[in-house]
Amino acid sequence: MTAKKPYADIPGTVIFDAEQSRKGYHLNQFCMSLMKADNRARFKADNRAYLDEWPMSEDQKLARAGARL
User: What CATH number should be reported for the domain whose range is 18-68?
Assistant: First the structure.
């Protein structure tokens, strides 16, 4: 459970803080992994298998793979 944040009630705004950073950590690491040609080739060959190597939520995996799954 997260502590009440004084800035949490800004309408229409998501504040990028440590909690948000932790939520996106593995997604960011996945994206960075695609800088290597070997990883891009593995992702292109079987994107779902490559995505499943990363501890991301299903929503994150679907956002990265798009309609290719």
Answer: 1.10.700.10
Torsion of Cα atoms, 12 then 18 then 19 then 20, to 10°: 50
Q: What is the pLDDT of residue 67?
A: 46
Q: What is the pTM of this model?
A: 0.70
Distance of CA 45 to the CA centre of its chain: 20
The region that residue 21 occupies, defined by phi over 0 for left and psi between -120 and 50 for alpha, beta otherwise, is alpha
